[in-house]
Amino acid sequence: MYVTNADIIAWVGNERAYQLTTDTGTTPDTALIDDKIEEAEGEVNSAVAMRTSLTPTEADHPTSFYMLRGWVTAIVVYKLALRRPNMPEDWKSEYEIVMAALERLRKGQIEMPDVDLSGQQAEWNSKPQDADRDYMV
Hints:
Elements lengths: L4 H8 L1 H8 L8 H20 L12 H20 L7 H18 L26 H4 L1
Helix pairs in contact: 1-2, 3-4, 3-5, 4-5
């Protein structure tokens, strides 16, 4: 897990978290935030899995962990903001940057800063990057 409810609420502020997650009530809907965290972590983890079977941890790969944590946070905030009109433009652009980075990670065009990916490509995706359709079937 890269982020928690508390991280997201701290990032956007309690009042904005409430506005983004709750139609009724007086506190942020932590179940909704949990759902969005799960979705975002799934997106990030699927990109990481295309490159390695490792899961970067704060202790073993802190630079990569915090990079991925930032990506998850941007995705969660964007997905929460979709529920309301007038999303801040910087949230939208940050989301677009993160999604482009995830695609580049999947394609092997960028690396994770402190994870040696040589020979670490996940087995189920061990085909050459330029493999044609015949190779895959």
